[in-house]
Amino acid sequence: MSLDVDNLVHTEMAVATFEGPECCGNKRRERKPSGRRRIFVQTETGCVLRMELDRSDNAHTVKRKLQLALNVPTEESSLICGDMVLKNDLSVVRNDSPLLLTRNFLNRSSSTPCLSPTGRDLQQRDRSGPIEILGFSNQFVKTKELVKDIVKAMKIGIEPIPVRSGLGGAYYFRNSHGENVAIVKPTDEEPYAPNNPKGFVGKALGQPGLKRKVWVGETGFREVAAYLLDHDHFASVPSTALVKVTHTIFNVNDRVSGCMHQSEKQISKIASLQQFIPHDFDASDYGTSSFPVSAIHRIGILDIRILNTDRHAGNLLVRKLDGVGGFGQVALVPIDHGLCLPESLEDPYFEWIHWPQSSIPFSDDELDYIDCLDPLRDSDMLRMELPMIREACLRVLVICTIFLKEAAAFGLCLAEIGEMMSREFQGGEEEPSELEIICIEAREILEQEETSTSETEKGDKDVIQFAIDCEEQELDCTSIIEEKLKVASPFQFGSRGANGRNLLSKLEESAAVDEGEELFSSADKCAGLVQDQKPNVSKLSMSMRNIRLGERSWQHLGTKQNSGYLNGTSSGNRSVNELPGSSSFVNLADMDVEEWTQFLENFRVLLYPAFVDRKSGNISQRQRERLGISCKI
Ligand SMILES: Nc1ncnc2c1ncn2[C@@H]1O[C@H](COP(=O)(O)OP(=O)(O)OP(=O)(O)O)[C@@H](O)[C@H]1O
Question: Which InterPro entries match (predicted)?
Fold first, then answer.
């Protein structure tokens, strides 16, 4: 990339080289030739710049361009895409990705000076269309139609109107007939975000927001995620896409005075754009008894998968079907999914949990739908469509979907599943949900396994060293060990047991099939038999002891039916005070891929006994007792 500053300024500001405006959504944009990508850089204060990257660009060159546009020294800013701070290589950044530009070393409150464009008005220079969809999914076909209608209407002077209700900034966009066709919610006007028009300000984009595990500015892509996950339009989430939208109506707060104002200038924002659904009420205004069971179930299934923390009645639109169908019938439409998929397990809010429809068993169709859900495929799809989504959110999706699938297959109804996911409050204290307790258990087992493994590996090394020592002494120790093990163990060892490593793995295999104490004592004895010959072997004994102890717990956990599966683990009396943080009991983000895979295995094994206990009404009490949490069920 050339460093010709004039050319840079000309080319990149706001950012200049806009390939033909692909607004209006009626023409499908071609994917960029490999290496060339369009990105949207959003500052912490909401300003959005569009840029074209080519293959040679790296984080530094992009920041240099932004330095010219925004007057922020490159060393004082970071470029962020979801989880990633982009240090140099930009190959991971996909076409249409929104990136966040943050200033380092600053108190990132909304009162810090805005990273505002200097000199020329960058927004004015943006020759792209008024509404551009970020993403290529076929699922945005409906949104493209809407965008086309809206742009047509704007051309004849039909402008959007602000939405009064809700805490965030929102605008109804209209068609040529003046009808509302979409609701647009800019990410920098969310509650707490710097340009919120309703007085709920105080944070910069990228800081914890209304929910601790949903950053300010990140509700927009969650709205889109909920729509994309609603396969076959099962729960009727309205079409939703992330857009870059430019208009004069948007709010910009004055950083110094704190006053809000419409700038009268064209402002570009990143926003969610959702189809407007004509409706008569929301669920808080209407008798819930008329709500169809299947609608509640379908919305509930979605809410569970995405761990919706905000399913209050106001977020269910109610449309009367009197004109089109039976008298008194209504359709429900779920909206406002900005607080789903938090970055760790949180307390969901499921308004439907106490509605009688939730206690009715799932229908066959619903069970089939749940059975077909594939959380790994869903995660891959979201990674593809929403490159900014964080891995921790996807882990929440995986956990909750597995939980739903197993629980439904077991025979639990929607209300039971929702209850198992919900926290309880005791004496003003928040307690982990049953789902969270299962996750805590799964992590504990993981930690025990890791301890066992590391000690085993240490034991392995000792055994190898032992074999080497034996070789050096021209002593065929391994055959002695093998002989002694043959005598001592009820299990036969084959010819592979020719060195310490193989002997140990044989021991592990044998241990894995043994249920009782006999092998443990035998193996222990075996090690003891060679102890005289090499002191190192005592460590092998210890390591085997740990393997056995770990496995005993594991088998107990996996097979327990009657005796309380929580009793067999090591941390019998942990109090709630020892649990990390009050609003995040389980950290899913800090596991590497291998640990996460093992964690999921542990998690699955723990589910069945938890469901059994839930059915028998014991689980919560027993789990809470074990964790030292008082709870009256
Ligand atoms: N898809 C839609 N179709 C029709 N009306 C909608 C739609 N989405 C939102 N609304 C209306 O706009 C209002 C505000 O929207 P929404 O609840 O999504 O905003 P919010 O600021 O996130 O609200 P809250 O404070 O409840 O979280 C809703 O109460 C509803 O009346």
Answer: P4KG1-8 (IPR044571), PI3/4_kinase_cat_dom (IPR000403), Ubiquitin-like_domsf (IPR029071)
